[in-house]
Amino acid sequence: MDTFRRVFDIPFGQVGDRTLTMDMLLPTGPQEGAIPVVLWLHGGGWYSGNKRNVITSGMLDCLPQAGYALASAAYRLSSEAVFPAQIHDVQAALRYLGANADVLGVDAERVAIAGFSAGAHLAALAAASAGVAALDGGNGLPGHGPRPCAAVILAAPTDFARNPRATDPALNPHLAEGHPCAEHLLLGGPVLDHLALADRANPLRYVGPNTPPCLIVHGREDEIVPLSQADLLYGALKDAGADATLVVVEDGNHGFWEAGQPYPREPLPPLIQRWIVQFLDTHLRGRGDFPLHDRHTVRVAQLRASGAADGAAV
Questions:
Q1: pLDDT at 91 over 80
Q2: Beta pairing class for 214-219 and 244-249
Q3: Cβ 203 vs Cβ 158: under 8 Å
Q4: Which pTM does this prediction carry?
């Protein structure tokens, strides 16, 4: 029996004829005051994907089961608008959660942001650039939204100009065949022809000592986004004095499955679910110390064993 309820298509912004909406999972059990909330951003290369999957697939049911609200927000895809439209929509979602916290029953002072792949890029960007007016946009409610207290970043592209799969045709069959890659579609043209815009979209540009704690998870055998993208973000965070943990799934692909295997839509591996909840408990609720620090490695078999150990530090 579900211990949470689903709420669909809550409008939070308007851009022309496009109404931006979010779906939510809300805990139904007894709660002590307002509920901490996680804003989730879906993957799909900025050109596909939808907010509904995480709500109906069970992927992150662990969050409402642990007493967190989960808000999954839509954002304009690259076929609708190029960057920075997407981060403008994310900021509009944060402003909505902050302004309507009492109505929703969530705590505007305890907000985390999370995402997978393209959504993780936007989550990292929103976490690092909080308060940067140029990325706020004008859709949705006015003002500034709550600053995320923590960020969960799963398989994120980060620095497009230093992503060889976004710039080198020898490493990307789409480029080799003359087709645009996802980054090209997001920026409105090849990355190397749009370096200024790529820099605006780069979370590393905004990282500083006040960037909230980040949990980064990435597969070494990721066939979509190279591990070097996670290394760059992790390195920038550590150099800035921010709190960061990088978990490398040694034999994991883009979805943290064994390399060469598809990644079906199902709950995240049990150990990753546990780490996410522990990470949020530490940084949103002040409960205990997150067990992972700095850089760790783990294998897929460990992730999928519910009684797995916490991985080995490197």
A1: yes
A2: parallel
A3: yes
A4: 0.94
Beta strands in the chain (DSSP E): 4-15, 18-27, 35-41, 69-73, 106-116, 150-154, 214-219, 244-249, 294-298, 312-313
pLDDT digit string, tens, across residues 5-38? 999 999 999 999 999 999 999 999 777 889 999 9
Question: Residue 82 and residue 131: Cα distance in Å, rounded?
Answer: 21
Q: How far is 36 from 94, CA to CA, in rounded Å?
A: 13
Going by DSSP bridges, is the β-strand pair 4-15/106-116 parallel, antiparallel, or unpaired?
Answer: unpaired
Give the start-to-end residue ranges of the domains of the chain: 4-159+202-313
Q: Which residue(s) pair with 116 in the sheet?
A: 154
The answer to whether residue 99 scores a pLDDT higher than 60 is yes
Compute CA distances 128 → 107, 145, 182, 229, whole Å. Answer: 21, 14, 22, 15
Cα–Cα distance for residue pair 311/314, rounded to 1 Å? 10
In the chain, the percentage of residues whose pLDDT exceeds 90 is: 75
Residue with tokens 């995402």: 115
> Residue 156 and residue 231: Cα distance in Å, rounded?
11
Of the pLDDT bands very low, low, confident and very high (cuts 50, 70, 90), residue 308 is very low
Residue ranges in 71-117 assigned as alpha helix (H): 85-99, 101-104
Contact 91, 137 (CB under 8 A): yes
> At 259, is the pLDDT very low, low, confident or very high (cuts 50, 70, 90)?
confident
117: left (phi over 0), alpha (psi -120 to 50) or beta: left
The closest of 50, 66, 92, 43 to 276, measured between CA atoms, is 66
Q: What gap in Å lies between CA 117 and CA 113, rounded to an integer? A: 13
**For 4-159+202-313, CATH number?**
3.40.50.1820
Q: Choose among 224, 295, 308, 221: nearest CA to 257.
A: 221
